[in-house]
Design brief:
Elements lengths: L1 H37 L5 H29 L14 H4 L18 H22 L6 H23 L5 H6 L7 H19 L20 H21 L2 E4 L14 E3 L5 E2 L1 H22 L4 H16 L7 H26 L7 H19 L16 H29 L7 H6 L1 H5 L1 H19 L1
């Protein structure tokens, strides 16, 4: 009976994660649609290809070293009690391991790896939207690999892994990735944007910003609703669907097989369904009011609401989730406007605000609202507290987000590899990236000149 139950549990878990990966794929369909809707016609092809090619590049690099990092570096290394790299835990997740292939004896590694891979794509795609219409494709792909296969998975090892030093020492709790994915991506985008500079014509000579409205509001709407839909899979993938207390040493309360969050603490899909929808609703309503019905910011505010509440959406009451979602949307909108005007930062889709500022705020808010709650079901870990969550937010947004993004952009810029030329930006990046299209235009001009001569 035990063997049959174990087999059913394994097969169910395999299928569960496979389904979450399929649903999360819609996030990237949504990003493509959303960014095309936000960009101008002459940049559509470049925007699509930039987002599309991050998928194979991050996938391959995540297979070779990104996944190994998660299992190897929960201690920092050497931050937690002087302990270093967890070589034994990481070995089964190295690319040459039997479990990282078509091993029918291991039904879980592939789908669990894929769920984390889709998180990696998400982190890279968040940066993509902020830099549209002026970044070189190659530069973006290097940055995508950096965040998708290195920096975000380091922060996952520190703040998401059940053995992560931030969970143990700081009481860091981020069940659905306010910081682990969103704050780090927003911080990275901000670092890149400072070096990259604004789009031509974005700011007047007096420094005031011009509005560059979305090319197609319909596509923006559809894109963001696809992202909302994919976020359901994202939330589900942050859970372990079923586990026995014995599996984690009998340290959780009770003896019933249960679903857990990423820290192996009991939770349910019912709980996160309540809180996902309430935080989305709070964000949408608040953004509609604060932006005076602006469609772009209303939809973006819904996403900011989910992100702000995500850190504690396994523990919040639904009304708390709604209020935190509303506050996150207001913070994202107000911070975007202030930073744009004060520092002339051109974040084309508000990605730094929606993901970075809302994610940072969500971590800080969780520190106060959940103060005293256990960060993990394991004994000896710090409790959730305001200082630990604030320090965690600084690490996610600043240390692992902003600093690497700024440094990588500065290096690329020093070699002239970051930004397209003024001529290319004015003509449109599609003209520079599609030789066939340019050749066709030359043929049309030649034909027109021949007709004029006759």
């Amino acid at each position: 009976m035990g063997n049959n139950l174990d087999a059913l549990t394994t097969i169910f878990t395999e299928f569960y994660y496979w389904v979450t990966v399929v649903i999360m794929f819609l996030i990237h369909v949504g990003f493509c649609v959303y960014e095309v809707g936000s960009s101008r016609r002459r940049n559509h092809l470049h925007t699509l290809m930039k987002n599309t090619m991050l998928i194979p590049l991050v996938t391959v690099t995540f297979f070779f070293f990104g996944w190994w990092i998660y299992w190897a570096f929960p201690n920092g290394p050497f931050i937690y009690r002087g302990e270093g790299i967890l070589w034994d835990a990481a070995a089964p997740n190295a690319p040459w391991s039997e479990t990282m292939g078509t091993n029918i004896g291991d039904r879980i590694t592939g789908v669990f790896w894929a769920a984390f891979l889709l998180f990696s794509w998400t982190a890279a795609s968040i940066v993509s939207g902020s830099v549209i219409e002026r970044i070189q494709s190659g530069a973006f792909w290097i940055i995508a690999v950096m965040i998708g296969s290195v920096t975000w998975i380091i922060d996952a090892a520190w703040g998401w892994h059940p053995e992560g030093w931030m969970v143990k020492l700081l009481g860091y709790h981020d069940a659905y990735a306010s910081g682990v994915i969103h704050a780090i991506a927003g911080g990275t985008a901000l670092g890149v944007l400072i070096v990259l500079g604004p789009r031509l014509g974005k700011f007047r000579t007096d420094g005031s910003p011009r509005d560059i409205p979305p090319h197609n509001p319909w596509l923006v709407t559809v894109g963001l609703f696809l992202i909302y839909t994919g976020f359901w899979g994202f939330y589900a993938a942050c859970n372990v669907p079923i586990i026995s207390p014995e599996t984690i040493g009998g340290q959780i309360t009770g003896a019933t097989w249960t679903a857990t969050n990423i820290y192996l603490a009991p939770t349910t899909l019912s709980a996160i369904t309540f809180n996902f929808l309430m935080s989305l609703s709070g964000g949408l309503m608040a953004a509609y009011v604060i932006s005076r019905g602006d469609a772009f910011w209303t939809y973006s505010g819904g996403l900011a609401g989910i992100i702000a509440a995500s850190a504690g959406n396994d523990l919040y009451h639904p009304i708390q989730s709604m209020l935190i979602g509303a506050l996150g949307a207001i913070i994202a909108y107000k911070m975007h406007i202030w930073v744009e005007r004060r520092f002339q930062i051109d974040d084309a889709v508000g990605a730094v605000a929606v993901h970075g500022y809302a994610g940072f705020a969500g971590l800080v808010i969780a520190g106060f609202v959940l103060w005293g709650q256990p960060a993990s079901p394991f004994e000896g870990y710090a409790i959730i507290n305001p200082l630990g969550m604030f320090v965690g937010a600084l690490i996610m947004f600043g240390v692992l987000g902003f600093l690497p993004g700024f440094a990588m952009a500065a290096v690329l810029n020093s070699f002239g590899l970051l930004r397209v030329s003024r001529k290319v930006e004015l003509e449109g990046l599609d003209f520079a990236s599609d030789e066939g299209y340019r050749a066709a235009l030359d043929d049309i001009r030649s034909a027109e000149q021949a007709m004029l001569k006759t």
